[in-house]
Structure to design on (118 residues):
């Protein structure tokens, strides 16, 4: 799943209204951001070698979500500012995941967190 910061803000609002799927996404992003400045070795952008840090936080995220009901098993990779604005960035990110840890990765549709929408 490819997620921008705008998506995270939408999810945060939906989570505050009780949407559990949105709350899980917000928790995953928060966990990732918490570790950006403290993880060794320093995390890098999924698409380039730009080092991510507290001063250079990711502007988009790519999640590998397992087909089970335990979101804590998800893997999150950040994208730097430059890479997060590349054309067709979601497909580029999925291709990077496919060549590394998830050969069967695919782009999932964005969640619609608004009540009454599937």
């Amino acid at each position: 799943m490819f997620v921008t910061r705008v998506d995270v803000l939408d999810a945060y609002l939906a989570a505050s209204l009780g949407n559990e799927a949105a709350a899980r996404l917000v928790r995953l992003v928060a966990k990732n951001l918490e570790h950006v400045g403290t993880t060794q070795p320093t995390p890098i952008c999924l698409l380039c070698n730009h080092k991510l840090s507290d001063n250079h936080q990711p502007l988009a995220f790519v999640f590998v979500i397992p087909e089970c009901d335990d979101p804590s098993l998800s893997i999150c990779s950040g994208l730097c500012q430059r890479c997060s604005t590349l054309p067709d960035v979601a497909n580029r990110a999925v291709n990077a995941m496919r060549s590394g840890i998830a050969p069967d990765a695919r782009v999932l549709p964005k969640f619609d967190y608004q009540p009454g929408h599937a």
The longest strand covers residues 60-64.
